[in-house]
Fold:
Amino acid sequence: MREAYHVELERLADNLAEMCGMAATAMERATTSLLETNLPLAEQVISDDQKIDDARARCEEQAYALLALQAPVATDLRTVLAAIHAAESLERMGDLALHVARAARRRHPEPVLPAEVAPYFAEMGKLAVRLARQAEDVIHTRDVEAARSLDIADDEMDDIHRHLFTVIMDKNWQHGVAAAVDTTLLGRFYERYGDHAVSVANRMVFVATGKMPGYNSDEL
Amino acid sequence: MREAYHVELERLADNLAEMCGMAATAMERATTSLLETNLPLAEQVISDDQKIDDARARCEEQAYALLALQAPVATDLRTVLAAIHAAESLERMGDLALHVARAARRRHPEPVLPAEVAPYFAEMGKLAVRLARQAEDVIHTRDVEAARSLDIADDEMDDIHRHLFTVIMDKNWQHGVAAAVDTTLLGRFYERYGDHAVSVANRMVFVATGKMPGYNSDEL
Structure:
């Protein structure tokens, strides 16, 4: 019974790690499609989103099976529930990459972003991909310290996001209201993606160790 | 065993309904603080958000206890998991109301919104509150038809949200970039709130009936 539980939990963790990789690839391509007005790449992100949704459904089914067949309690139970929450966040990260790709498609062949703010999005895109890859590493390595490093990347993301507002709101903004609106929404998509990645990593640590970083498991 | 399960599930449903009411009140007050530049009301929404977070933690603990002590399977298991997801969406609805209240506080004593778009937000605020109250009704009445009525209110919300963009992007927009950015983000908060309310109602139908509206339970 215990052995079957751990084999199944291992499979679930592998699938969550794979979802991290899918979410990272989606945001990497979405960012490229945004910055290089690459329509085929945007279309690919849009059509591939279904695969992330399907992966989430598979993770939930695995989690249901674990709960139904093994009836875990205590930390084991919380671990499976953490996996269910992580899968939900990962699906949402895929949706946010999808929103970026749709913005690129909507304005094609025009660029969505004024050249002035493009470098911020290049950087936020890199941070987003790094965050998703770090979450993937956490699940493979069970490295609690690696989970903490996500906070650093997410803080950088938040700093850029805040700075972006000062650029948009500055009286020297030359690009009009429509570009300001697009920039605002896109900035928010990256910032939310980062938040979800941090949440996934924290839950992954729980899946790997039975403890949430920074908390006693009793507090959860 | 079965009776204890149903008593506990009933308590969990009551707590979720109470969370719906809290999320509705939060958005009602946040909207008033936004439209009437009412700082004390904004502060109240901001400080009350902790109560919604606490209620979510209580719902999760109840769900954990149900799973650990009753080890439900099949539909019963999916019902408890639906409740966990609903609690997460309700906490997020509280966060979105909090964002609205923070915007009102940030610009106080100036209004955040140009008078031209205020009526759209008055309407979106009403729809948001109606959606949360309808979700609350669904859990009390177990009325599957009532859950469908949320789709109508949410479609109205989406229509207003779309129209808002045409107003902001119009060449006659007189209110500058900063107001456009604020209006864009606030519009998104209401639209996301509506999406979460619909998701909650659908999951509430599941908690009440074991079936998701519009799906066979096999598809879930």
About this structure: Residues 215-220 of chain A have pLDDT under 50 and may be disordered. Chain A has one domain: 2-219. Chain A touches chain B through 24 residues (CB under 8 Å). The two ends of chain A are 26 Å apart (CA to CA).
